[in-house]
Amino acid sequence: MKPTKNDVVKDLKLLIDISCVEGEDLTMFELFHKMLIRISYKAADISIDYDRKRVYMNVIAEDKYYDLETLNHPFAPMMSVNLVYKDLGTFLKTCIIEDLDSLNYYYPTLISRFFKRTTGEEDLESLQIA
Predict the structure, then answer these.
(1) Dihedrals φ, ψ of 64, to 5°?
(2) What is the Cα–Cα distance from 93 to 13, expressed in whole angstroms?
(3) Which one of 12, 49, 58, 103 counts the least CB within 10 Å of its CB?
(4) Is the pTM of this model over 0.70?
């Protein structure tokens, strides 16, 4: 059975809750956190300072240069951004983009990388959202 859009959003929020427990080593979820920020802000070169509650990144200044897969257009105009957040979980939940293209990118990555499930090419296709 293919997951629905609501299932994927619910899973993402659950993983955010798990990955943002106070006092835990947040760096083991850093790749996941960066993935959410990257897609939401169309950002590259993301650095998260968990102690100072800051996110440093370069954001693509023009949408025409944005590519979800690569995000590395050599001539894309970039802007440096420094964000301060109060609560990491709340901030990351605002980064969830709920369009199907973004969710179809998130979900196979979520399943294969963060729940330690290995998938073959056929399995990745079955993870597309209904």
Answers:
(1) -65, -20
(2) 6
(3) 49
(4) yes
